[in-house]
Each structure stands twice: as structure tokens, then as C-alpha cells.
Amino acid sequence: MTGRALITGAAGFVGTRLADYLRGRGWDVVCSGHPAREGMIPCDFRDADSVAALLRDAGAVTHVFHLAAIAFVPDAEADPLLAMDVNLNGTIRLSEAMREACPDARLVFIGSADAYGPPQSIPVTEEHPLNPVNTYAISKAAADHYCGRLGRVKALDCVRLRPFNHTGPGQNESYVLSSFARQIAAIEAGLHAPVVRVGNLEAARDFLHVDDVLRAYELAALHGRAGAAYNICSGVSVPIQSALDQLVAMSTVDVSVEQDPARMRPSDVPEIRGCHDRFTEATGWQPEIPFESLLEGLLGYWRAQLAGAPAP
């Protein structure tokens, strides 16, 4: 069984793909995004009237996938008031509007594993305390707690998801693996000196292909337990150095690597790895796309994007 889904943040990397994925699975999909594209309902999550209008215009939705957020950590640090107003207060406004317009609909809240902060134990389970250490993570942790409260008092059917790092073709080059892939593709195209500039290569992260994440979001919407929180992760930590080495091995040219102080973070957690057992038990979901395929897809995307670009 599917339904009528409203996707907020549908103009973003994941939201765009989620809309296509759900339509391909038979869902009736309504989108809202910023900047709003053709066919999308505009919405300002800083304004309660705008959010209420979005729910009215969306019609009789059965599920709301809430992806709209200030999602880039440096952007949240640069304007913490905006991040809190969109990520936390916007979620509260959305839940209030849902209670008025579609009280029986399910809210699929897309949070972040960043809310856990530096792991106190590995693998990170859903029982790990939320201990966020940056503005983005604080805003997501607070919204996660609020959605948990909605479930406890049965004010709204809500499932909370905590995705770990995920990437794929089309992701902005601000993110680490996409940055590496774009730099290598630019070198191959003669658009860049044969040097890949990097930050901390010693850290290890839990990466998923975005397509595995899309499957997880649909399964959570259909089979997740009301009020529950679920990790969406691979359960495997990959050293950033290893990911870079694999991409370099896929390159058609020789490249060197240089550390860029501007890409270093003051305090980087050595390893982050999640556990998806709770979600797998609830839905049967398992990650399916190998990490090597993820890297091949990123590099292929950037090669295609830069093909025919003018040389400097």
C-alpha cells in the first residue's frame, strides 16, 4: 500500500530523488521546496501561516516526509537563529499544521545522526544519548526530541529517522566524497592542477548510497513503529583515506594529494559507525549498494558534469 505523500525540502539533493523514487513506486506525490521549482508549493517554514497554507494546498496527504532544513553545518554556524527557526521551530509549525489539516497522516521526520555527537560507544544505537556539538546538530536533536514527545502523547503519528552520511550522484561538492570525486574529474578534464586538496584523512565515517536511503525512507513511512527512532546507516566505518585511495585508483591520470588547512575541522571525531538492527527488524531493510559502486557513481557523475567544460 502506498499513499499521497508531501515532501518538504523537495528541491534538495535527497528530496529531488525521493520524489522520483516514490512516484516510481506508485505514490501520489506533492512537493514543496526552496527555491520552489515548477509544480512545487512554496513554503516559508519560518512562518506559521505559510506552513498552514502548504498543508491546505497539499490536500489529503497520508504521509509527510520532512526534509526541509538548513542542512549544511557551516551555514547553520553562520546563522544559528535561522537554523533554529527553520530546523526546530519549522518542525513544530509543521506538526501543528498537520494536526489541523491532516491529523491522521504520518510525519516522517528526517533528523540526523549528527545529533548523537562524539560517540560514547561504537556502534551507535538509538539508545545512545543525543549530545550535539554544533548548531545544526543541536537544532536537529531538539526537533527529534520534540517529535518523540508528539509520539509519546499520541498527538501525531511520527517516525524519527537518524540518517548517517549518505551521498551519490548530484550531491554538492561541499561534502567530502563528492569533493574528492569532482577534483579528480576536473584533473582528468584538464581543468585543475593534478592535486587533490583534502582535510582530515584519518577520520572514519559510516557512508550509505542515497538510493539505499530512499528505500529506507519509504519503508519507515509504511512499516516503522509510531513514535520510534531509527538509525539509517551501513553499519561499516570507512576511513576517509581509504575512500580517497579508491577514487585515486579509479582515476585515468596521476594525481598527488595535499592537505588544505581550510578543510580541517578543529575537533574531528576519529570514528563514527551506526547500528541499523532496530530498523532492519522493523522493516527488513538492509543496505544493498557496495561502497565501490557509490564511489564509481560519484566519479562518473562529475566526469559527465565537467565534460566539455572550457579549460582555464
Given as residue ranges, the uncertain stretches (5+ residues, pLDDT < 50) are none
Strand and helix order: EHEHEHHEHEEHEEHEEHEHH
Q: What is the SS-derived class?
A: alpha/beta
Counted by DSSP, the helix tally is 10
Structure report:
- The protein is globular and about 60 Å long.
- Strand 1, helix 1 and strand 2 form a beta-alpha-beta unit.
- 42% of the residues lie in helices and 16% in strands.
- Strands 2-1-3-4-5-9 form a 6-stranded parallel beta sheet, sandwiched between helices. A 3-stranded mixed beta sheet has the order 6-8-10. Strands 7-11 form a two-stranded parallel sheet.
- The protein has 312 residues and is an alpha/beta fold.
Architecture blueprint of SSEs:
Elements: E1 4-8, H1 13-24, E2 28-32, H2 48-58, E3 63-66, H3 73-78, H4 80-101, E4 106-110, H5 135-152, E5 157-163, E6 165-167, H6 176-188, E7 195-198, E8 204-209, H7 210-223, E9 229-232, E10 237-239, H8 240-250, E11 256-259, H9 277-283, H10 291-306
Parallel strand pairs: 1-2, 1-3, 3-4, 4-5, 5-9, 6-8, 7-11
Antiparallel strand pairs: 8-10
Keyphrases for this structure?
10 helices; alpha/beta; 312 residues; single chain; globular
Q: How would you summarize this macromolecular structure in one to three sentences?
A:
The chain has 312 residues and is an alpha/beta fold.
